[in-house]
Amino acid sequence: MNVSSKTTEAQLAQPMKQECENHAECMKMIQMILDGEANAEDKEHFRQNMDKCMPCIKTYHLEKCIKESLHNKVERRPCPEKLVAAIKAQLNY
User: Fold this and answer.
1) Nearest to 20 by CA among 51, 50, 55
2) Are 60 and 50 in contact (CB under 8 A)?
3) What pLDDT does 22 receive?
4) Rounded to 5 degrees, what are φ and ψ at 37?
5) Residue 59 burial by Cβ neighbours in a 10 Å radius (0-12, 13-18, 19+)
6) 65, 67, 81, 92 from 60: Cα distances, Å
7) In a 3-state reduction of DSSP, which class is residue 53?
8) Is the pTM of this model over 0.90?
9) Is 19 helix (H, G, I), strand (E, B) or coil?
């Protein structure tokens, strides 16, 4: 999902926030968006906030970059059956 939007004249007239008073909530929303768990209403609400909040913009882009880098670097391999059996045995013990 591309969260960035077209900048309107009204948005350009508003000063950009340098501190986010809802940082914890915004971090949760950023993770939901990047994980594909946010609905359209959540995405729109965050997009409107991000358009005027510099910390949210920076955090979104940083988290997106980290997620993409990890996705490209992590090699997915199936877990050996012997290891699965050993883990299950320990859990059932």
Assistant:
1) 55
2) yes
3) 78
4) -100, -10
5) middle
6) 9, 11, 38, 41
7) strand
8) no
9) coil
